[in-house]
Amino acid sequence: xxxxxxxxxxxxxxxxxxxxxxxxxxxxxxxxxxxxxxxxxxxxxxxxxxxxxxxxxxxxxxxxxxxxxxxxxxxxxxxxxxxxxxxxxxxxxxxxxxxxxxxxxxxxxxxxxxxxxxxxxxxxxxxxxxxxxxxxxxxxxxxxxxx
Length: 147
Description:
Radius of gyration: 15 Å
Oligomer: single chain
Order of helices and strands: EEHEHEHEHE
């Protein structure tokens, strides 16, 4: 009989960014058997109280896509970033103790590719390239979502 157990874990923190209650996704690890089956939504619903701002730092286009599906708006994206989001992103940068470029990239944050192989997503990988993200150089992206 084959073992059908799967693994997943998630870590979140609450803070205030630009005076708004915010939820920070610190980390999510999901067994590939569970990816695309709503784990991120379900666990984020449990973690979230009334926060409308949900943020993360990622190198993974699939993680970006999970937040994009969860939120009504997400930045950075193909659209111009509103000033209020720029201010939230500045606060997120301070919270995460890092520096970003104009696109929200943290150059070399991970020191290299964080994953065994480069993660891709048919919709999001082109956006990452347009933002100038270089996964093999360890770049990360700070992302702000509005629920």
